[in-house]
């Protein structure tokens, strides 16, 4: 895809995954809903069209799932309406919810927005708790979409367990060990070790190369490893005093001051060009990032990129979405059945194979197509094993209404430290003033 999803810090691109092939019967039948139809309006032949509104790239079309669902349910056609940028999508979604018109039968919600939707709009969505088994998902995922009355307004799609993507050829050129185990060992102490490795790289780096693409990416990875990030459990914004935010900010400021970063906002044209030119040695790498790297780096660097476990011992998550069903839809039952099917293990595994985004449904982790998955572009890195182990250890993060806004604003000021040389104290002041205007 040529799409970024900055509210959740996420951009998605297709990543080719080598897996054991799913049998057609398993893919088509598992998670299949009943053929019963509601009494909602249909055409004269009993056919209906379900609309799925989403953003970026959820992977359903690439995995052929809409076409397969039509084969299972010949009277149902699924139409996808995709908005390129989530920052454009979300305001429109809120407007549609407020006016009660224009909504799709199924709508996607980014993790950076889910808390606000749960707290302010839950009554406008169908309760999925009677349709899906919430225990099938990693525990923290469905809790994020659970309202105070126990209703579940979204079924989890993907998550973003963390790893470290790196250029093994650039590591070798800088005199560093380049195999996965050695790289993981070098950063085992955490992101502080990552910066130390960056200083070693810089000392002998090939001319025109940089250790990392963006300090803000590292910042997001650091914060994503903590249960308490921008809000506390009472809903109070605590980002100014959050240890995770402070650690991430300090590390980002250090990376910027030591010139370890190329200072490129992720997913922008300059960032894509840098990947294409081969000037970036490492990228903080949630599962979906591998697709971004492979598409933008191109064939010239196939096999030169590799993937190691993320720095430190604390698992981290960056990104993820949900599918929800507005109550105002004409085909609520059919839409709910579709959501259940799309988020079942086999379908999530098919999306993983198609575009590389990692399932949130635990049942998918035991499927051979996930467990044995490798990425040929990344020197056949065993991503099924790396990401599944990470996913099982990710802490349950406390989410807040404006998580996405806070994250984006801080990332912008980190970019200013990198690109403009803005002093950390001045950048932090600008960030907090801007955030406080939004959250009050």
The biggest beta sheet is recorded as: 9 strands, mixed
Discrete helix count = 18
What gap, in angstroms, lies between the N and C termini? 36 Å
Overall pLDDT metric: 89
Low-confidence stretches: 1-14, 19-40
- What is the number of beta strands? 11
- Work out the helicity level: 40-55%
Order of helices and strands: EEHEHEHEHHEHHHEHHHEHEEHHEHHHH
Percent of residues in beta strands: 5-15%
Write the layout of secondary structure elements.
Blueprint: E1 3-5, E2 10-12, H1 24-29, E3 48-55, H2 65-72, E4 76-83, H3 86-99, E5 106-110, H4 111-121, H5 139-143, E6 155-167, H6 168-173, H7 180-186, H8 191-204, E7 210-212, H9 215-223, H10 243-257, H11 269-277, E8 280-286, H12 289-297, E9 305-309, E10 317-324, H13 332-342, H14 345-355, E11 358-359, H15 368-371, H16 383-393, H17 403-419, H18 424-439
Parallel strand pairs: 3-4, 3-5, 7-8
Antiparallel strand pairs: 1-2, 5-10, 6-8, 6-9, 6-10, 6-11
Helix pairs in contact: 9-10, 9-17, 17-18
